[in-house]
Amino acid sequence: MSFFITFEGADGCGKTTQLNMVADFLNSINVKNIKTREPGETPLGAKLREILLHYDGPVADECEAFLYLADRAQHVETFIKPELEKGNVVLCDRYVDSNIAYQGYGRGISIDDLKYLNNIATNSFKPDLTIVFDVDSNVAQERVGANKDRLEQEGLEFHKKIRNGYLEMAKAEPERIKVVDANGSIEEVFEQTKKIILELLNK
Ligand code: TYD
Fold first, then answer.
1. Protein residues with CB under 6 Å of any ligand 1 atom
2. 93 CA to middle of ligand 1, Å?
3. What is the pTM (predicted TM-score) of this model?
4. Relative to the CA of 71, which ligand 1 atom is closest?
5. The pLDDT of residue 91 is above 90
6. End-to-end alpha-carbon separation of the chain, Å?
7. Contacts of 116 (CB under 8 A, 6+ apart)
């Protein structure tokens, strides 16, 4: 059984906590799995991550988009596909939808162009399931706290655009993208997450 599952949402939505809980749950039922993330899982990607999150000079929007795309191209070819071939469920913290949400809805780059570029970067490789953790933007900003990276510093309006972007994407692709209400407690959110994961495993 090998599925490619991506975890998405605005900064502070709690997806990484949920991803870790899903991994523990899969381990408890003996489903082989591996955790990964974008940007920065591969050795090359780690160098790009450093630039993407901490470079302190001006970064052109298109440059930012291409750096994420470069990270993703390397990640799909050298990590995600080989892990799936080994029979692992791959749990990935962010993927193409982050690019559409942040660089598209957030920065204003053409969404059609981004889709085209992501198809090149990934050879059109799509997740079997994507879970979007949807949380009120004010709550999300509070969760992020004071120690913010380059994108987290963008503020409330930017993050509202991202949230809205994810919801639009989910409407357009309801088969692949499931939305979880992530305003509640960690346990409440996990109940919804687990249900979605079990539906996929039982297919
Ligand atoms: P990270 O510290 O991994 O945060 P998170 O836990 O929220 O995933 O930082 C990743 C940041 O990069 C996050 O702010 C979203 C952003 N991002 C994009 O803007 N475009 C992309 O294609 C990806 C993968 C991430």
1. 11, 16, 37-39, 53, 68, 93-94, 98-99, 102-103, 149, 151-152
2. 9
3. 0.96
4. 24
5. yes
6. 11
7. none
